[in-house]
Amino acid sequence: MNIRTGRSLARALTLIELLVVIAIIAILASMLLPALSRAKVSARRIACLNHLKQLAIATAIYVQDYDGFYPSSNNTNKWPEALRSGYEDLAILFCPDDSSNPSPAPAAASADAAPRSYVINAWTDYFDALPQPVIAEIMPETTIQDPSDTIVFGEKEEGYGDFLMDLRTANELTVLDQTRHGNGANYAFADSSVRFLRFGQSLNPVNLWAITQENRYAR
Q: pTM for this structure?
């Protein structure tokens, strides 16, 4: 073998090695991209949980300040404005996975006008069990028998302006979004805990939105 042939073979081997490296990188990229995508989805779900946690804490502060009562469900000020003293950033009212892409609300605007991804429990099964008519729909926290399994906040369908998850009007079938984060959604509970529930788990086998035992275990 002459010197020129040897140099050509060396260059050929180097090119083959380079192609092998490129192929390995392509394979690794194809393996990593789905993992990165799942990580982004998980990060948005966790951010949403953090938003709900802040709202749950703001609600607990409100209840403490107002003699153990939740915000009125039929007041002129809705829950975002009623709880405003317990949080500062209006961005926590919006889930990162809500694709409605709203314009930011002015800082001085009422929180009720801000973009919002969540609904609060209207406690309507409790109010419906009281002597009628009920003038001021304010519920005492002492009514809740199982705070760790009673939902205060859930996620609403995009495009709906509802503030309440109202069992009276079957909002669980229309307004409630149970699949925003893939196969489930995030919820905040009366003990200020937050967690992800798969589709249907907020309603069956126990209706975690209900207060009365009759409605919680209705079949």
A: 0.81
